[in-house]
Amino acid sequence: MQLILGLGNPGRRYGDTRHNVGFRCVQRFAQDLGLVFYQQTPEYSEAVGDGPAGPVTLLQPLTYMNRSGEAVIAWAERQGVTVGSAVPPRPEDPMAEEGSDQIEAPVPPEVVPIVVCDDLNLPLGSIRIRAAGRDGGQNGLASVISACGGDRVPRLRLGVGPRAGMVSPEIWADYVLQDFAPDEVAAAEDLIDAGAAALGDILVEGPQRAGSHHNRRIRLEPDLPPND
Length: 228
Fold this sequence. Notes:
globular; alpha/beta; 6 helices; Rossmann fold; 7-stranded mixed beta sheet; two-stranded parallel ribbon
């Protein structure tokens, strides 16, 4: 089972904000696959069907960005699985007795989610795919990493950052909760389309190979004063 988690905030108030490109990207991907989201619980909406590499579940947390991990846990409990990070398998215990009659309790299947989120550290239009890493100050990603018990969580980060010097760090929290400016809308739509295309390749090829041909960093020059 493959799980994709698009981060954002629920409700019309936040629908077109920079912080919701994760929501919009998985929505676009669902449309490409012919899938429809339904609200299953108070914690999340879900779209389930066939993806390019087999059965896939798309999730949109309704717990608000900073508590995204709670939605993942609620989904896992409902499905009878656990969520975790992609840690290497533990070696077998060399002290275990061969042919032991001890019966171990069954372990629920573990699912490693693929997270799609905005990234204020990347200029608008940039894409960065990683198999693991720190949260980079993205509170929703931090919540999911905490829920998974480790940072080996694949992520597709969609750049929503401003031009250099355009927004001071003190108001970044307000900045991501604003709608895209009129002159940014086209770039945002292109970013969402490109992100949806990247998701298909992540499912088929894995994050490292997909990143090799989808990662991009848009270089934006700062606004210059008008010529006299």
